[in-house]
Automatic annotation (TrEMBL):
Cofactors (names): Mg(2+); K(+)
Organism of provenance: Bizionia sediminis
Keyword match Amino-acid biosynthesis: no
Name of the coding gene: nnrD
Family: In the N-terminal section; belongs to the NnrE/AIBP family. Belongs to the NnrE/AIBP family.
Binding positions for AMP per the UniProt entry: 412-416, 440
Chain ranges of the YjeF N-terminal domain: 9-218
Subunit structure: Homotetramer.
Keywords for this protein: ATP-binding, Isomerase, Lyase, Metal-binding, Multifunctional enzyme, NAD, NADP, Nucleotide-binding, Potassium
The protein's name in its UniProt record: Bifunctional NAD(P)H-hydrate repair enzyme
Residue numbers binding (6S)-NADPHX: 58-62, 131-137, 160, 263, 324, 377, 441
Cofactor: how and how many bound: Binds 1 potassium ion per subunit.
């Protein structure tokens, strides 16, 4: 699912107005009607007080459209204009007049010196104070109004974005932003709904179809994508009837050390279950027996050293190499890793101690083949790029690293972000059941397995992260969060593959009702 930038939504609005020969006011009316329908469908005329807070820009204009339709349908509406500026937009002014005509009085103006209205805990707040046009910090009194919303405990429905939140920067303070229960986001979700520091500002979100012309939506490419099943299916490579194990590549996993052989076991099982034709593991000698007896499908090559990797000599021609899980960072291993990178020409997936060794000797980054996939969790990422001041700073640093070395970064977390140069892919599958040791090793195995089958590295990263989270989402129905283990994530990978073809994912779009409901 494309995530459009603010500019692209504005452009889309202009394009639609021109192509469909309608005015921006009519488009605003369409969007407002969609929001009204959303509320009307759920409230069915209930007389719960609805407090509509409108700013003086187009977000406020949207709020006024909703308020008018609510009044026309007999709802218990209180409309306020948060009068923080006199630079009112046309969309605001037209709907301000219509509101006056509808309820025969002007909405209540709230200025810096006014008392805020009483809001009960069972009331509803429609937050249309600021949209994506916020361009400087809100005045203190407006911020106090946001805190008044929160203190009221009323249900907050934000129009387009929680007011005070920007789409491309972190807020200075958490109190500067409205805390929404639900946000109706125009045309696509926003990146900030998925970032650690800002996801909390809306408990839930839905996309509102504001009627931008389909031609524009289709032809416009975005830098940011939310990964959905619809994005995965075109990438999927069906298994061919006349194929054999050689068709699906030979994956090599390098890793393990005394006490951490399990990491290689998990990764190699995940590689097998992801469909690789052949899988070999390169491990210290102590790994031979446990791996040979627990994973019969796996082939093994051992290091000369008993307890850690000291000299990576591989007498095979793998399609792809996944390196680093459970490997340790001893001096011998570090030097073996350096020698390996100096002569390696194969595509790489690098995780865990592979990343830690890269961070220790950044010059090694120069040795990475193009399109290497690196899968750091937050701590590993910090070792690679240093501390960041907020999510956007982190993303900038990750983009710089990806551009400098032409590599793919998989930033693991609640919402794993895949960064390739300026392109960003957000994964929303997965759950806190994955917060347990070894699940990252499983992910490394999956991505390596997909690359063995000739998925492009970026495709493999996107598909792999999606499948990994999906397995956990299906497994959680049987195990709950606590009893989920990395092995169980592997056991549910088959169901994650099958799920691609069973039920279509319902689009996360607000219900679209027939516009007739608003006509009298
Ligand atoms: N078809 C539609 O109905 C569309 C509606 N849109 C709505 O328009 C919104 C954006 O509207 P605007 O660009 O008018 O801006 P907003 O309504 O988000 O912002 C308020 C206005 O106040 C000014 N302002 C910004 N920060 C301020 C601050 N801290 N203190 C005082 N004034 C400040 C801005 O210059 C802006 O004109 C979207 O979020 C959405 O709600 C657009 O998305 C386009 C499509
Ligand atoms: N709360 C969560 N929600 C969704 N995914 C999670 C959550 N916690 C962890 N994960 C996922 O689990 C994996 C953990 O990886 P990692 O930290 O490397 O584990 P390990 O090193 O033990 O294998 C990552 O893919 C991460 O995105
Ligand atoms: K808003």
């Amino acid at each position: 699912m494309k995530i459009f930038s603010d500019e692209q939504v504005y452009e889309g609005d202009k394009f639609t107005a021109q192509k469909q020969q309608i005015t921006s006011i009519e488009l605003m009316e369409r969007a407002g009607i969609q929001i009204f329908n959303w509320l009307h469908l759920r409230m069915q005329g209930a007389q719960v007080p609805i407090h509509v807070f409108c700013g003086i820009g187009n977000n406020g204009g949207n709020g006024l459209v909703v308020a008018r339709h609510l009044v026309n349908h007999g709802y218990n509406v209180h409309t306020y204009v948060v009068n923080f500026s006199d630079k009112r937009t046309k969309g605001f002014l037209v709907n301000y007049d219509l509101m006056k005509q509808t309820q025969k009085k002007w909405p209540t103006l709230i200025g810096p010196k006014d008392d805020f209205p009483k809001i009960g805990p069972d009331d509803i707040i429609l937050d249309a104070v600021f949209g994506v046009g916020l361009n400087r910090p809100a005045d203190d009194w407006v911020v106090h109004l946001f805190q008044h919303f929160k203190a009221s405990k009323a249900f907050v429905l934000s129009v387009d974005i929680p007011s005070g939140l920007k789409t491309n920067a972190a807020p200075v303070k958490d109190t500067d932003v409205v805390w929404a229960n639900h946000t109706l986001s125009f045309q696509s979700p926003k990146l900030v709904f998925f970032l650690e520091d800002t996801a909390k500002f809306t408990a839930q979100w839905e996309v509102l179809d504001v009627g931008i012309d389909p031609e524009y939506l289709q032809k416009t490419n975005t830098l940011t994508t939310l990964i959905t099943k619809q994005d995965i299916l075109p990438v999927y490579k069906p298994r061919k009837p006349f194929s054999h194990k050689g068709t699906y590549g030979h994956a090599l996993l390098i890793g393990g050390s005394y006490g951490k052989i399990g990491a290689v076991q998990l990764a190699s099982r995940a590689t097998l279950v992801s469909g690789a034709g052949l899988v070999t593991a390169f491990v210290p000698k102590c790994g031979y027996l446990p791996l040979q007896s627990s994973v019969p499908e796996l082939m093994l090559i051992t290091d000369t050293n008993d307890t850690c990797i000291s000299n990576i000599a591989i007498p095979i021609e793998p399609t792809v190499i996944g390196i680093g899980v459970g490997m340790g960072t001893s001096e011998e291993t570090a030097s073996a890793f350096t020698d390996f990178l100096n002569q390696n020409t194969k595509p790489l997936v690098i995780d865990a101690d592979g990343l830690n060794l890269l961070a220790k000797t950044p010059a090694l980054m120069e040795k990475l083949p193009k399109y290497s996939v690196l899968t750091p969790h937050a701590k590993e990422l910090e070792r690679l790029i240093g501390k960041w001041s907020n999510d956007f700073d982190k993303l900038d640093k990750a983009i710089n690293l990806s551009e400098k070395y032409n590599i793919i970064l998989v930033l693991k977390g609640r919402f794993t972000l895949i960064v390739y140069k300026k392109n960003l892919y957000i994964n929303a599958t997965g759950n806190p059941g994955l917060a347990t040791g070894g699940t990252g090793d499983v992910l490394t195995g999956i991505i390596t397995g997909l690359m063995a089958q000739q998925y492009e590295p970026l495709e493999a990263a996107i598909f792999g992260v999606y499948l990994h989270g999906k397995s956990a989402d299906i497994a959680v129905q049987d195990f709950g969060y606590e009893a989920m283990t990395a092995s169980r994530v592997i056991s549910y990978l088959p169901k994650a593959f099958l799920d691609l073809f069973v039920k279509p994912e319902p689009p996360k779009t607000a219900n679209k009702q027939d516009d007739k409901t608003t006509k009298k």
